[in-house]
Amino acid sequence: MSWLTDVDDDDDDKYADYEARSRPNPKGNRARTKIRPEHNDAVTGRVFTVDRGRYSVLVGEGTPEEHEATASRASELRKQAIVTGDYVDLVGDTSGDEGSLSRIVRIQPRSTILRRSADDSDEVERIIVANADQMLIVVAAANPEPRPRLVDRYLVAAFDAGLEPILCITKTDLADPASFLANFAGLDITVVTSGFGAMPTDEIAALLAGHTTVAVGHSGVGKSTMVNALVPDANRAIGRVNTVTGRGRHTSSSTISYRVGDGWIIDTPGVRSFGLGHVNPDNILKSFTDLAVLAMDCPRGCTHLPDAPDCAIMEGVEEGRLGETGKLRLDSFQRLLASLA
Fold it and tell me: What CATH number corresponds to the domain at position 101?
């Protein structure tokens, strides 16, 4: 008898039982799938602030059932930014009761996105707010000194995002803002001014009515003071300007929305720089509407930089078609183009 056939029947039974035994599934018996639930029972809310992985969401906005809920992010959204102003879909416990936690499973399509980069060489964009339609640029007439180049950058970001800019000049009791405002004489921008103890809250509130407005500005310009005047229970921290460096301290560390009548104002932390690495240089001209009119006569492919031949903008400015502010406007425009080139 061959050794291949000389096997005990009992051994056959033993190995048959062993091979038939199924290996347990440590993750349970449910089959893995990439199909996500549709969450047809989700409710929609507006994100009004973000704090360390938790999202405060206003549910049922404008209805008698309006309330705040706290939410976390669903795992499938871990690579997507959720920011103040986003409209999101929630599931789970959306009651807003103490200790309750819902889950954000969808981000609704955004109408606008305001972005900035760390600097002009960084093409990685950081979303600041979503779904705003106005930008309130707050600048101090003095202490700290106004920076027209920074305001130019805000304007570029606003026009790139499709936001209507509004310029608010604070601390006009310390200095006359006329020379600073001359830098923007060629633009059709609404300007509001305020001095010590004379915050024009009614005028600003009227401009915010029916809009979602993001407030931006250099640290120490009085942005949080303005927000506190518009929303008395906001209690935003107010900083002081360093008397040695002339720089303001960062007091607001988070982006948060406040209701002002039937509108919203989104207060953002003060910044000392505003990178535009994500912006297409062709879009910069949109924020210089006075120069854009002249650019219609530029040759195809004109860079509008100082070495550009037959640039209609430079020719128009030299001819004085934009008045005394033309050279200042052109200089600011070309500086931004050069920084992104």
Answer: 2.40.50.140
